[in-house]
Write a structure and sequence with these properties.
36% of the residues lie in helices and 26% in strands. It is an alpha/beta fold. The chain has two domains: 161 residues, Rossmann fold (3-Layer(aba) Sandwich), CATH 3.40.50; 80 residues, Alpha-Beta Plaits. Strands 5-1-12-13 form a four-stranded parallel β-sheet, sandwiched between helices. A four-stranded antiparallel β-sheet has the order 8-9-11-10. It has a three-stranded antiparallel β-sheet with strand order 2-4-3. Strand 10 and strand 11 form a beta hairpin. Helix 4 crosses helix 5. The longest helix is centred in the middle third of the chain and has 18 residues. It is globular. The structure holds magnesium ion. The site of magnesium ion has 7 residues, from loops.
């Protein structure tokens, strides 16, 4: 039976230095555009990776763009899901043209709204002197989502942007867009975009020619829950956002 692991990357398999346990032996795993090491694996994460890599097909399912994904130094060999499901790379690294075309067609329906969000959110941040930076997440020529991050240690600025501007903005466009927030990542995505759409598509595709397929989904964020639910089993690191909101309250019941 073919075994497939759909694996979120950031904060699931590796993380930034600030999120690593102090004193742990770390190995550099992903880099910034300027070449500096930015994300690291602990010893346990390295062993977990080797375990997965030796025994299953590993398909990364990430919000990273193609550029940011290429800065992850792990030997992925299978399909890859990028940009919250907006882009699929076939084994070998070429984008799946049919999936990209689907994304391009969907983007014509929402790109003007994303641009309006960028402009009005930028104006709000300037008016209130918020220490945030924001942009449209675009890849392979397709705009996929709006995202914002706070500058160094200014989490309050991002919280304020979310609560006072993004939440009411979303309320006015109920159902058409949704929010992703985990730590220093704030994103607004069109409802047609989501890791689960790409994972569902890949499972159907991989199932062709196989009697059975065993699928496992692993991720750390609330926005990973929907793609994990497409799989036979769901895994999350203890202490992750998903764990804290899902299993931890149940574990506390004893
Ligand atoms: Mg993650």
């Amino acid at each position: 039976m073919d075994k497939v692991l759909f694996l979120d990357l950031d904060d699931t398999l590796f993380q930034s230095l600030a999120k690593c346990p102090s004193g742990a032996a770390l190995s550099e795993t992903a880099y910034l555009a300027d070449g500096r090491a930015h994300s690291f694996m602990t010893g346990k994460q390295r062993i977990l990776w080797r375990w997965f890599d030796e025994h299953t097909r590993v398909i990364p399912v990430t919000a990273r763009s193609g550029d940011a994904f290429r800065r992850v130094k792990l030997p992925f060999r299978d399909w890859v899901v990028l940009d919250f499901g907006g882009v699929l790379l076939a084994p070998g690294g070429k984008p799946d043209e049919a999936w990209l075309e689907r994304g391009r067609a969907l983007a014509t329906g929402y790109q003007a709204v994303l641009q309006e969000l960028l402009e009005t959110a930028t104006a709000f941040a300037q008016t209130h002197s918020l220490a945030v930076r924001m942009r449209i997440g675009e890849d392979y020529g397709v705009p996929f989502y709006w995202m914002a991050k706070h500058r160094e240690n200014e989490a309050e600025s991002l919280d304020r942007l979310q609560q006072e501007f993004v939440a009411p903005w979303l309320e006015r466009r109920k159902g058409a867009f949704y929010l992703h927030r985990n730590g220093n990542n704030l994103a607004v995505l069109p409802s047609s975009l989501g890791k689960e759409h790409a994972v569902r598509h890949l499972i159907e595709r991989l199932r062709l020619g196989h009697d059975e397929l065993l699928t496992v989904g692993m991720g750390d964020s609330l926005s990973d829950a929907a793609f994990m639910a497409e799989c036979d089993y769901a895994m999350t690191p203890c202490g992750s956002q998903l764990f804290e909101l899902g299993l931890a309250p149940l574990a506390a019941l004893g």
